[in-house]
Amino acid sequence: MTTSKYLAELQRSDLARPTTVSLRLTPEVRGLVDAAATALGLTRQVYIVDSAHRRAVDVLLDQRVFNLGDSAAAVIHDALTGPLEPAPALVDLLRGSPMSQNR
Q1: Which residues form a coiled coil (predicted)?
Q2: Tens digits of residue pLDDT in 26-61
């Protein structure tokens, strides 16, 4: 099931309604969370929910799989592993005299 299909089903289900989640935090973690929330002008609850939401989205986006044909995979492989073309500005910079000689 794709992420978008999962989210669509989730929105139609009973899980779409808000629910209570209880957390046990060490004093150190609670202090850190409270300090970060305060720095952003948020409540602890809003900060934790927002942080969890952002992390969940990042994790799911990192799970994307790209299915490529052989030729497309070869192009990507060559681009990632092949030698880089030098940037003209970098070549010009490297051809100049060292700054220590410009004094």
Answers
A1: none
A2: 999 999 999 999 999 999 999 999 999 999 998 988
